[in-house]
Amino acid sequence: MSYDDDTPAYNRPISPRAPMWLTPEERAAGITKDLKVAARRYLCPNCGREFSLFQSRAVACKACPQAGSNCPYVRCPFCDQEYPISGFVVPESKEDQVRMTQYSDKVFNRWQDSYNRR
């Protein structure tokens, strides 16, 4: 997926390594660049609805066997269309792709360890 100058900046991929402003309140709350990228909302090119990487992993990828194993894709929770993280959430960068995939997996694995006990 490639983006040109006509693509709104709102929907362009962003690197967690790029300069990014964090307010003092965000820093105090423990918000990081990785969290801002994972929570950022994107428009699905197929259905036009908004979703974030977190929403994708929590809803659309929940039952997928690849969900906790560094999957390089993001799936729209509305139309079930799948896109590579690289070029959609982050720029065409293997380093950014791996970083965001590992970050989201770590967050959801921690959540499952905390709340899915029987």
In a few lines, what is going on in this structure?
With 118 residues, this protein is of the alpha+beta class.
Explain this structure.
This protein is of the alpha+beta class and 118 residues long. The protein has one domain. The longest helix has 22 residues. The termini are far apart. The relative contact order is 0.17. The model has no long low-confidence stretch (mean pLDDT 82).
Number of helices: 4
Order of helices and strands: HHEEHEEH
Overall structural domain count: 1
Mean pLDDT: 82
Assembly type of the chains comes to single chain
The shape, in one word, is globular
Radius of gyration: 14 Å
**What distance lies between the first and last C-alpha atoms, to the nearest angstrom?**
42 Å
Low-confidence segments:
none
* Helix amount: 25-40%
Keywords:
alpha+beta, 4 strands, 118 residues
Write the layout of secondary structure elements.
Blueprint: H1 24-28, H2 33-39, E1 41-43, E2 50-52, H3 53-60, E3 73-75, E4 82-84, H4 94-115
Antiparallel strand pairs: 1-2, 3-4
